[in-house]
Amino acid sequence: MEDLANPIAERYGRSPAQLRRKRVQAIVIGSVSAVLLLSFLIWVSVSSATKLDPKTTAYEVLGTGETTVTFSLLKPANSTVICALKALKQDYGTVGYKQVTLAGDKSLDAYPVEVSQKVTLRTTELAVTGLVDKCWFY
Length: 138
Fold this sequence. Notes:
- The structure is a single chain.
- This protein is α+β, with helices and mostly antiparallel strands.
- The protein folds into 2 domains: 2-49; 55-137, Immunoglobulin-like (Sandwich), CATH 2.60.40.
- The chain has 2 helices and 6 strands; from the N terminus they run ααββββββ.
- It has helices at 2-11, 16-49, and strands spanning 55-61, 66-76, 81-88, 94-102, 112-122, 129-137.
- The strands form 2 sheets. It has a 3-stranded antiparallel sheet, with no helix packed on it. A 3-stranded antiparallel sheet has the order 4-3-6, with no helix packed on it.
- A hairpin with a 4-residue loop joins β1 (55-61) and β2.
- The longest helix has 34 residues, at 16-49.
- The termini are far apart.
């Protein structure tokens, strides 16, 4: 009777060798999935920790030649950051541009500090708005 059970088990994928193969496949797939998930979570936490999110807090059009932009930024205290500011006209064309360097102090730790800056941009035409476009680490 046992001779009959073994061929039937093999036919329907229940032999000891097939069960062992499926178990090894499940362990390998689970391990690879766990490593990929852990790598993704580490990447997300590291990339979000170094992301800069500048906010324009105010702007003032002073005339056809000048616009001021005030912005704030949360950055690591020991990192130097460069921010690009723009003055735009009615049709969203750029009429003023300036890069500002926010120096970091290498003797400090990497704890975040909020930096607020007011910058005057020279413009070629009358601007209708001013904003901080983007910031990046130097």
